[in-house]
Inverse folding.
């Protein structure tokens, strides 16, 4: 029996981080929104906006926008394990672009922190549109825990 | 004129500032990307702006901004170097964050490690004060022909 859900470890912390992640300048400039969270998992989304286009000929969203969405959602999935506030930093992120995003549709990202170590957290994420079976990108990342004195909230 | 034609016409004319190219990419325009050519080399510049902040406490640039800036740089670099009318497609993009991006101008340069018939490999470096101290390095593969994606 896999994927039986549990709540995030510290709901109050997670909720405030999720809200904060949507309010930070770059997130609000691309219109990032929080969807849901549970232990080890986070989902966020972006609505289609003309400002986010990377290829003017096709209207396809820029890869950099997907990078922001995946980076932020992956980071949030790490926070679903945290008991108390700490800063984390992305060490590396790899994104495989499986297909071009369909113009006009929102883009979702579901990220999983599948290994939450003492120092390093490991994540994987999928970006998709209306059909989760046909993802647009797949990603793996690593995050450094306790990366700075400046903790979040 | 379409993006790639604007880019190649600029190269032909010995353009030093490719603002007309950036103007055609909405997301690059939103980030505030600049593209310059000097002595046959491309330099990508991202002047600091508040909307690109990811951590207002430090403050630091958003990791996604650094990634998006680099991916955009690699694509433009590849189109500029190849002089082909085909727009490459990103297959994969992998970034290592080495230092936090400070609230100041970010620079990037790219290098085509290998260009095959169908796939190109591009390395990217992003720095702020000192090119020898990069804040991020990245590599990506691009598909050059659109037929068998």
């Amino acid at each position: 029996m896999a994927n039986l859900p549990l709540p995030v470890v510290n709901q109050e912390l997670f909720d405030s981080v999720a809200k904060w992640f949507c309010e930070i300048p770059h997130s609000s400039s691309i219109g990032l929104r929080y969807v849901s969270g549970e232990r080890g998992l986070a989902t966020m989304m972006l609505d289609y906006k003309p400002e986010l286009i990377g290829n003017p000929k096709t209207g396809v969203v820029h890869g950099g926008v997907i990078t922001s969405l995946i980076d932020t959602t992956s980071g949030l999935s790490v926070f679903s394990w945290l008991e108390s506030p700490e800063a984390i930093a992305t060490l590396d992120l790899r994104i495989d672009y499986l297909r071009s995003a369909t113009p006009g549709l929102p883009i979702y990202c579901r990220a999983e922190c599948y290994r939450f170590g003492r120092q390093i957290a490991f994540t994987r994420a999928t970006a998709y549109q209306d059909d989760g079976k046909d993802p647009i990108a797949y990603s793996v990342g690593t995050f450094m825990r306790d990366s700075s004195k400046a903790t979040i909230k | 004129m379409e993006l790639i034609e604007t880019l190649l016409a600029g190269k032909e004319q010995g353009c030093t500032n490719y603002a007309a190219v950036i103007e055609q990419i909405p997301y690059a325009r939103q980030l505030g990307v600049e593209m310059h050519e000097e002595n046959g080399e491309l330099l990508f510049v991202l002047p600091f702006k508040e909307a690109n902040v990811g951590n207002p406490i430090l403050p630091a640039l958003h990791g996604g901004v650094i990634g998006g800036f680099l991916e955009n740089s690699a694509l433009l670099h590849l189109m500029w170097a190849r002089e082909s009318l085909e727009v490459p497609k990103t297959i994969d993009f992998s970034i290592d964050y080495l230092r936090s991006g400070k609230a100041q101008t970010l620079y990037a340069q790219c290098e085509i490690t290998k260009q095959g018939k169908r796939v190109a490999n591009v390395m990217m470096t992003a720095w702020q004060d000192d090119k020898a101290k990069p804040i991020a390095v990245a590599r990506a593969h691009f598909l050059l022909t659109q037929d068998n994606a």
